[in-house]
Every structure is written in C-alpha cells, then in structure tokens.
C-alpha cells in the first residue's frame, strides 16, 4: 500500500509574528551588552593612550634632569608684570610650541619630531617640501580618545597663541595638561559655585590660597600655577610635593562649551590642537563633565573648558607617577582640588 507524503506545513501568521517578537526581544537584550562591550574597549584604549603619554612624561623627565616637557609661547607680561607689547616677548627664540611637541620623541614619534624646524614658528609654511604647518596638522593616535566620535581628528581654524586669530589646521588632542586648581586669564567662565573648605583654610574663593587668579600670559605669574604644568615654562617632578601618585598630570578634555553632550564651538580661539600651547593645558577648577549652563558664558575661550569625556559617568586622568585612574563625575569638589594641586599637602586621593 503506497502512502502520499503531505506538503510541509507553513508557519501561520501568528507563529511568524511570535518568532519575530522573540528575535526582537533577544536583539533588545543583546544590543546594550554589545554597546557596553564596545565602550569598554574604547575606554581601555583611551586609558592606554594616557599610559603611553605618562611613560613619555617620565622618560622626558629622566632625560632632562627631572624637568617635565613644557610649552613655549609668547607673553604680554614680563618678569615685572608690565606689558611688553603683543608678541614682543617669547620664552625662547623659537615660536609657540606645546608640551606635546616636546614629548614627541619619548612617545615613539621621533620621525615626526625630527622634521620640525625649531628655528621657525610651528605654523611656518615657508620651507619647501614638508613644513611645520603640515606637521602640526597630523593627527596623533595616542592623543585621540576613540569614545570622542563627535569631533574630527583634524581641526580647522585653530589659534596658535593669544596673539593669533585662527586660520590654522591642527591635529586634535583629547588630553590636556593640568594647571592645577586655578582661575586662568581674565575670564571667569560664568558664576563658579563657591563651596566650603572642609579644613577651614579659605582656599577655594577666587584668588584664595588654593585658587590663585592667574594671568597665563604673564611670565611673573607662572609660579602661581599650582598644578603639574604651567602655561609656559618648565616644572620639575620634584616640585610635586603631594606625591606623584596623588596628583593629576593630564586629563581628558572634550573641549565642550558646556557639559556632557554639549555642542562644540569652532570659534577661531577654540582649543583642540595638539601643537597649540593654549589648548594643551587647562584648570581642574570646573566640575567633571560639567552640565551647569552658568559656566558657559565665556564658552568661546579655551580657558573655560575642562575635565570631560564621552564615557559613562566619569573620565580618565593620568597621575604624575604614570598611572591612570577613572574618576566619577559626582566626585566632591574638595577631592578634585586635592588631585589638582601639586603642593597643597592634602591627604585626599579619590
């Protein structure tokens, strides 16, 4: 007796919809995990970038009698604090160069460093073939955080220093050296919240013992910077009396107008270029991932940006001993103050 094989039964519409719903649910469950894993990988790369920068700083100091790399720039005030006229005074006979340029040979960028003509300005275009302006336009992978997907690794219309109104093309940096806990320049960056000094020493008001109001363009005020870096000129590792493991040297800086997710400002004086002496240092006075719009009133000036990242709820910072930490954006202001100052003799570390 022969039997007929029946046609295989097809899915009903209801069954198909159930399968689609199950797949959608699984995707919904897995997608956040995938995104989280990707961000974890980006964070790891960002942290490793800063570790490489830290090694460069320490190797530079070892080769330079304990001296850290530093920026060279023009100034408007000399040792006496009197004006010398825009552009008339320089730290050296060279043009403006950031500390990042100085550390290049110590982060495996010897080939790039050796192409610079340091007898000319860093934006010089007169040399035939490869010139300085071409070199400062190159992106440097160790200074780009992969989580910062909102900005181009090559940034346009950059200012070279305080006397320049933009027009430069520069490779980007997502990391800046710490000037400490200071008010910089003339700009107050909006209404900065006052807070109580837990030790009652009155260190946190503008111009107070722990928050000097400094003009970064003046040579005679460089010593008032209380962080690892000055605006211009050298500082030594031995100057960090609070301990290198408890002092932030370099921190993430997304160069926002405001807080996390804030719009970017391509003002001619906007920071972001690794060769720009102004762009490569900043104060830790402002809150991490600041979202307070009151701080945005001078947002077109790089001295009003600060510690920030696109990572969830925090940002990395490189300590002066070469180690890297991840800090919560809800950290107490006093903790940030302790991490920022190199000679405050505080005990807070996290």
Describe the protein in words.
- β10 and β11 form a beta hairpin.
- The chain has 350 residues and is of the alpha+beta class.
- The longest helix is centred in the first third of the chain and has 51 residues.
- About 7% of the residues have low confidence.
- It contains five helices and eleven strands.
- The protein has one domain.
- The strands form four sheets. It has a five-stranded mixed β-sheet. The protein has a two-stranded antiparallel ribbon with strand order 1-2. A two-stranded antiparallel ribbon has the order 3-4.
- 21% of the residues lie in helices and 11% in strands.
List keywords for this structure.
single chain, 350 residues, alpha+beta, five-stranded mixed beta sheet, two-stranded antiparallel ribbon, 11 strands, 21% helix
List the helices and strands and how they pair.
Blueprint: H1 13-63, E1 74-75, E2 89-90, H2 99-103, H3 110-115, H4 132-136, E3 154-158, E4 168-171, E5 175-178, E6 183-184, E7 213-214, E8 248-252, E9 281-282, E10 314-319, E11 324-328, H5 333-340
Parallel strand pairs: 5-9, 6-7
Antiparallel strand pairs: 1-2, 3-4, 5-8, 8-10, 10-11
